[in-house]
Amino acid sequence: MAKHTSWKVGGPARYFFEPRDCEDLTAFLQSLDVQVPVLWLGLGSNLLVRDGGFEGAVIAAHRGLRTMKHLGEGYLMAEAGVSCARFSRFAGRYGWTGAEFLAGVPGTMGGALAMNAGAFGGETWDMVEEVDLVDREGVFHRRPARSFAVSYRRVEIPKAHWFTAGYFKLGEGLEKGETITVRSLLQKRAESQPVRQSSAGSVFRNPLGDHA
Questions:
Q1: Rounded alpha-carbon distances, angstroms, from residue 182 to 37, 113, 119, 203
Q2: What is the pLDDT of residues 123-168, one digit of tens each?
Q3: To 5 degrees, how large is the angle CA 79–CA 156–CA 23?
Q4: Which of 11, 56, 84, 89 suits a disulfide with 102, CB 3.0-4.6 Å?
C-alpha cells in the first residue's frame, strides 16, 4: 500500500481492485466473500497503513469512477473517484460558485462526501442534494442529503455502504471560466502550509471554536 498513500508507508493488501465503472464494482462486490473486510481508497492522502498491510480488499476508485456531468442550472454530478481539485475547476468552468475551497483539498469527492471535507469556511455537504451509495452486496442506492446526519468532518453512513457519486447544487456568481477565487485560495494555502512537503497537518481536526 506504500505506493498508494501520501505518507509512502504500508504493507500489502490481500486484494487491490480498481473498478472500471459501477457495473464492474458491482460484479466485484458480489464475487467477494462477505467475511472479507473492505477499505475504500481515494488518493490515499493522510492514510496510515500498518507495515503488516490490510487483510482485506482495497477498492481504489480514482482511476475508474471519474465521471462528471453538468446537469444544468448549477446542478453537477461527480463520481467518487473524481479529485476535489478537478471538480472545483469543472464547476468554475461553467461559472458556478461554492466549490472553490475544494481546489486545495488533496482527496477525491468520495472522501469529501464521507468526511464532509472543508477548507476556508466551505464544507462539502453545504452543496449536496443527493448521493449514490453502494452496499456490500453491490446494490446501488440513491439518497437525499437530508437522510444523513452531518457535522464537522463527520457523516453518519449506514454500515458497509460507500459513496459512489454526489449530486451538487452550486450558486451563480462567476463569469464562465473565471478562476480568480480559486487561485487566491490556493495562494493562501501555499503561504500558510508546507504544500510541497509531506505533512500530517490535515489529519487533526480543529478544536471547537478555534483553528490551527
A1: 38, 20, 12, 23
A2: 999 999 999 999 999 999 999 999 999 999 999 999 999 999 999 9
A3: 30
A4: 84
